[in-house]
Every structure is written in C-alpha cells, then in structure tokens.
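Figure 3 (text version): structure tokens given as input.
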C-alpha cells in the first residue's frame, strides 16, 4: 500500500478544469492532474435526472494532502456540491510514486 491517492473530480468546462488543475499543481497539492474532455455525466440532482457534458480531472496526490486539496477545489469550483473522490493507489511504478510524493506538500 502506498500513501498515494488518485482524486476524481468533474468540472463544467475545460477552462474551469484547467484553472483548478493549475492551482493544485502550482500550490503543490497535486503532483499531476490529467484533464479528460467531453465526458457525459448522468446524475440525479434535486429530484431530476440531469444529462450534462463535463470535463473529468484526475489528480495524483498523497493521502495526507487530500483534505487541503479538497478544500482548494471547493474554493475554486462553481458547483454547489463538486465531485471530489479519492481512490487509494495500492501499487505503482516505484520511481513514479517517489516523484509524486516528493512533488506534493
């Protein structure tokens, strides 16, 4: 088991995703953020089923930095309830995981 987590988030568009990603990396809250454009999200919100185009972000960070990362995303995000889900990384390429941990506060 590593200290690394991958954090899945969505944003309404590429501009918001890029702004959040740059802030997270510039502030050393994430070592890397991948941005995947043109995902479709179907979800229930306030009693209605929504069908929206969104942008997916996957941030690589450490478990100890998750709370600070989540707080920063909430501060920057336009959604009332942004998706911020951490998934533990149980294994990975050791040099990459070392670089990741050295890149995050």
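Below: residues designed for each position.
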């Amino acid at each position: 088991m590593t200290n690394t987590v991958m954090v899945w988030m969505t944003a309404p568009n590429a501009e918001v995703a890029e702004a959040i990603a740059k802030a997270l990396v510039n502030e050393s809250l994430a070592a890397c953020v991948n941005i995947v454009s043109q995902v479709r999200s179907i979800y229930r919100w306030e009693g209605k089923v929504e069908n929206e185009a969104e942008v997916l972000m996957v941030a690589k960070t450490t478990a100890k930095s998750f709370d600070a990362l989540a707080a920063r995303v909430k501060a920057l995000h336009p959604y009332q309830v942004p998706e911020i889900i951490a998934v533990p990384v149980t294994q990975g390429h050791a040099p990459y995981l070392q670089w990741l941990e050295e890149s995050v506060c």
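The chain is about 30% helix and 40% strand.
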